[in-house]
Amino acid sequence: MKIETIAIHAGNHTDESSKAVIQPIVLSTTFVREADGSFPAGYIYSRSSNPNRTSLENVLAKLEGGVDAAAFASGNAAGMTVFQTLKPGTHVICPDDMYHGLRNQLKNLFAGILDFDFIDVNNETVLIDHIKPNTGLIWIETPSNPLLKITDIKKIVKIAREHKIKVACDNTFATPIGQQPLALGADLVMHSSTKYFGGHSDLMGGALITPEKNEWWAKIRQVQEMGGAIPSPMDCYFLARSIKTLPYRIRGHVHNAQLLAEFLEKHPKIEKVMYPGLLSHPQHQIAKDQMLNFGGMLSFCVKGGQDEAKRLINGLKLFTQATSLGGVESLIEHRASVEGPDTKTPLNLLRASVGLEHIDDLVADIMQALN
Ligand SMILES: *Cc1c(COP(=O)(O)O)cnc(C)c1O
């Protein structure tokens, strides 16, 4: 089946007892044991599994072309689960432009437990130079946050395989509608489903998706169940509901982002636009080869430094100044302020999550703020 069909059907099933077309929300934390000790529906206790979570995990796995998915309470909980499955002392190679929340997790919570380097993973020589006998994982994020750098997934996978290293890919920015890392050889996909999957800026979630039920996956399931950083049945329900429109929402985001990027690139007050769909993007060709579309996120640098960037952002009326991304409404933020004092993000950079408003209204808003 095609992805639009999967999105609608793989996370729902008709309830046999009520014949409700839409799967009900099962709030019960516990399930009846039969006289013979068995659990006929396979559910025992909701931390281990819940019907709404099962449906959500099913649609997540199918969208990414995987065999199984595990849903979490947040993207960071999903990321943390990956790091918790690694043997203490394992070396992890991470990109230099990485979601700051996960970078801080490694630096603050895993210091002394895991060994890690933040490097330009796209530079083959640098990458190979950093591989050590204890390297167990290469973490990639593409397009990256907030510089929209593209990582060549196939190239990383090839190098990793030669050294028997696993590759995990944060696919939050692209979504499976824009990029299928498992098909390109990745060993694991990670998502913050708070973003495009949720799509309405009203729920938090995370996910991991595997191409095979291997030993690593069994450990991931163990951390999910024993650690308990699981999403509630309500969150699973709303996420499965939002996912039904994901393919169509992404089309709208991509359409608007491309036009906005082209508009900004021509504007004399803009220094630089970072969007993989622009010919000027240094990795446009790699993006074209590995992505199905260029996504709905873009960053741009405003001429005149931080003050001009802040003046622009404060003059916007339709774009909301807020962190996060992937919702139907357009959001914009001064990224360096969010990332704190040790950020490497340019001070005149603004990151936009281009929403589903009409593109003419979005362009008009930026024009009035620039003027
Ligand atoms: C938001 C985000 C995360 C973290 O997800 P939460 O749901 O906020 O915990 C991880 N990676 C990327 C790329 C993100 O944008």
Reported for the largest beta sheet, the result is: 7 strands, mixed
Beta strand %: 15-25%
Question: Averaging pLDDT over every residue, what do you get?
Answer: 97
Structural class: alpha/beta
Highest-level CATH class of the largest domain = Alpha Beta
Distance between the termini: 48 Å
Can you tell me the residue ranges where pLDDT is under 50 for at least 5 consecutive residues? none
> What is CATH's topology name of the largest domain?
Aspartate Aminotransferase, domain 2
| Radius of gyration, CA atoms, in whole angstroms | 21 Å
Query: Oligomerization state of this entry?
Result: single chain
The geometry reads as globular
H/E order of the elements? HHEHEHEHEHEHEEHHHEHEHEEHEH
* Number of contiguous helices: 14
Total of domains: 2
List the helices and strands and how they pair.
Elements: H1 3-9, H2 51-63, E1 68-72, H3 75-84, E2 91-95, H4 100-109, E3 115-119, H5 124-130, E4 135-141, H6 153-162, E5 166-170, H7 175-178, E6 188-192, E7 206-210, H8 215-227, H9 233-243, H10 246-266, E8 270-274, H11 284-290, E9 297-302, H12 305-315, E10 320-321, E11 331-334, H13 335-339, E12 349-353, H14 359-370
Parallel strand pairs: 2-3, 2-4, 4-5, 5-6, 10-11
Antiparallel strand pairs: 1-7, 6-7, 8-9, 9-12, 11-12
Helix pairs in contact: 2-9, 3-4, 3-8, 12-14
